[in-house]
Amino acid sequence: MDSLLPSALPQPLPAPATPVQLEALAADLRAAGLEPLRSSGELDQLAADGFVYSPVLQPLLQGRRAQLGVRAGSSQEVLAAAAACARHGVSLTLRGAGTGNYGQAIPLAGGLVLELSGMQRLLELDPRSGVFTAEAGILLGDLEQQLQARGRELRLLPSTVRSSSLAGYLAGGSSGIGSLRWGFLRDPGHLLGLEIVTVEANPRLLQLDAAEALAINHAYGCNGIITSATLASAAAVEWQQLVLEFPHWEQALTAAQQLPATALLLNMLCVLEAPVARLLPWPQGCPAATGTGHRLLLLAAPDALPALEALLPPLGGTLLWQAAQGTSRGIPLRELCWNHTTLHARSQNPAFTYLQLLLPQPEAPALAALRERWGDDVLWHLEAVRAQGQQRLACLPLVHWRGHEALDALITHATDLGCLLFNPHAITVEDGGLGGVDAAQVAAKARHDPAGLLNPGKLRGWLELA
Ligand SMILES: Cc1cc2nc3c(=O)[nH]c(=O)nc-3n(C[C@H](O)[C@H](O)[C@H](O)COP(=O)(O)OP(=O)(O)OC[C@H]3O[C@@H](n4cnc5c(N)ncnc54)[C@H](O)[C@@H]3O)c2cc1C
């Protein structure tokens, strides 16, 4: 089988802008009241991203950065920046907070990086339906606070909720806290509409309905600039954080399969194999993981607690710690799950990288085969999710980096066992998670970015047309 790991940047890529193009672009931006950012420090800051978690991507993306940056505070300013790029033929990469994992916001061919950090407002919340519209650059943590003040909450959140932006999550993210209940961001019913700006000499401000917005969702900003988004929300719950411990891995796995199949209202369930638990910081008051126990982290509704107490002894679990979300000190549980587990493990040992897989059903035989073959080289971290209406287990195993060949062999073994790969060592939208070319994404690029200026190199379907 061919390697799924890139060894070079996707091609063809446009040439970086010439000094003449850059000066003309900067002059147009200034004329529109926008201040171009061009110092080395500013451009380096705009080139940071979680690609460093991948030893495959790091050598390919390190040092890639924009030639100019700019921050917009309104749709009018976004229109002006898009027009200037189209006029001078300069490529344009969008950036939220830069917490993406695969270099999604890293420009492969220089050009302009546009941040919408001045667009931070919650514009509308319908108190009856809970449907809200917010500007692209709002930080998810701020959005969450404003929704909670009105009895609502976001259905899905990345573990980077405190630092990442709404448009960055829609264009780059996929799942996270809430996925156990609500599935994935691209599932119909979450994203109900988008306002976008096209990249043309006379850019258009378009209102897309849910069906049209799907092509922009998880497209790495390759086929439209999101300026605001309309989403469904959920009724706010006072989530309780619980840390459980199980002496045996099989018990923790059984609990991860059985708890989401009950009527308990849960928002996150994460299982950490003992060696992973030992690498993590724990909330104040929660015992540090020093032994051989496997940990299961839960966010549960208050009314789930009595039933959970009764369920735990037969499952073999013990409750180690409990606190309402927002009241505990130190690290909250939602910053121990999803890719935050990898973050903490890498802070102990930067030689760790990771994978993202959806396990086949039944999970136990596939996991047992993987654990047996890979031993201590792969440490297990599971996340309960709802995939196409079914409760499933995803995993983000920590992988000791032993080179491309070993990672390829692990991926081949996992996929041969029936695991679905969401490859965090890929550059294009398709190779990262979508699996194949989505004709609707490519068609949307042709409509909204006919010259192919948005985030060049990231949409394989478009490159294949070139
Ligand atoms: C420790 C860690 C934990 C994480 N946990 C999760 C998780 O639980 N779930 C998850 O899904 N992801 C997770 N991620 C990935 C990432 O944090 C999230 O997807 C995050 O929401 C991205 O938001 P951002 O503002 O940082 O986007 P950025 O990284 O800035 O951008 C992401 C993509 O969106 C595009 N984009 C940004 N703004 C716009 C716009 N206005 N219009 C069009 N395109 C735009 C960018 O070009 C880029 O391609 C994690 C990453 C790390 C490092």
Tell me what the structure shows.
The protein is of the alpha+beta class and 466 residues long. It folds into three domains: 19-115, Uridine Diphospho-n-acetylenolpyruvylglucosamine Reductase, domain 2 (2-Layer Sandwich); 122-235, Uridine Diphospho-n-acetylenolpyruvylglucosamine Reductase, domain 3, CATH 3.30.465.10; 240-421, FAD-linked oxidases, C-terminal domain (Vanillyl-alcohol Oxidase, Chain A, domain 3), CATH 3.40.462. Helix content is 31%, strand content 21%. It has helices at 19-31, 40-45, 58-61, 75-88, 140-148, 166-172, 179-182, 210-213, 249-258, 274-277, 305-315, 339-348, 363-374, 404-416, 429-434, 439-448, 460-465, and strands spanning 68-71, 92-95, 112-115, 122-125, 132-135, 152-154, 191-197, 205-209, 225-231, 233-235, 240-246, 266-272, 294-300, 318-324, 352-354, 357-358, 378-379, 381-387, 390-395, 398-400, 420-421. The strands form five sheets. The chain has an eight-stranded antiparallel sheet. A five-stranded antiparallel sheet has the order 4-5-9-7-8. Strands 1-3-2 form a three-stranded parallel sheet, with helices on one face. A hairpin with a 2-residue loop joins strand 18 and strand 19. The longest helix has 14 residues, at 75-88. The chain is globular. The chain starts with 18 loop residues before the first helix and ends with a helix. Bound molecules: flavin-adenine dinucleotide. Flavin-adenine dinucleotide (FAD) is lined by residues 49-50, 93-101, 104-105, 116, 136, 158-160, 164-165, 167-169, 171-176, 220-221, 225-226, 338-340, 343, 455. Flavin-adenine dinucleotide (FAD) binds at residues 49-50, 93-101, 104-105, 116, 136, 158-160, 164-165, 167-169, 171-176, 220-221, 225-226, 338-340, 343, 455.
